[in-house]
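Annex B. Sample input.
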Amino acid sequence: MNKIKIIILPIFCSSLLFSSNSIEYSVGINDKLGYLGLFSKSWITEKNNKESYIVAGGLVFIGGVGYGQKHYFSKGFFSPYFSLTGFGYYVLGIGIGGSLGASGTLGFDMTAIKWKKKEIILQFGMTSLFDLIRGENLTIGADNGPSFLMPSFNIKLKNRK
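Annex B, continued. Sample output.
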C-alpha cells in the first residue's frame, strides 16, 4: 500500500497546481489509461493542436493517475491524433499491486454534440499499455490479433472554461 501512496500522492498534489483550460469526463476504455481508467477525469491545457493533461480514473479495484500529451494531426468534427501517457496504477484483488506504466494511442475524436463551451465526443482508436517497472505488456490482446494492441473507445464530456 505504501508503494501506491508514493506513486499517486505526488501526481495528485501536482494536479492541484496544473492550470487547465478544460475538464473532460470519460466513460469507456480510455485513450489515456486504457482499461485502468474506465471512469476518468482529465484536466487539460490546450495550445494549438496539442494538449497536455493530468488524468485520474478507475473503478474501485483498479485505477491510475498520470500525465500525458496529445497531438492532433488536424482539428474539426473528425480529429485524428496520437497521444502518450505516463501513469502510476494500482490493482486491488487477492493482493495489492501498483506500478508505473506508459500508454500510447493512435485514434480519432468525433464531436457528436457541441453547445456553448461543452462537447460530447466519441473517441475510437488503438492503444498499447506497458508496465515500465516489471517490463510487462499490460495490453489485453485478441486471440488472433497482435498482443501489443487493443481497441480504445469511450464517450467524453468536455467542458471548456
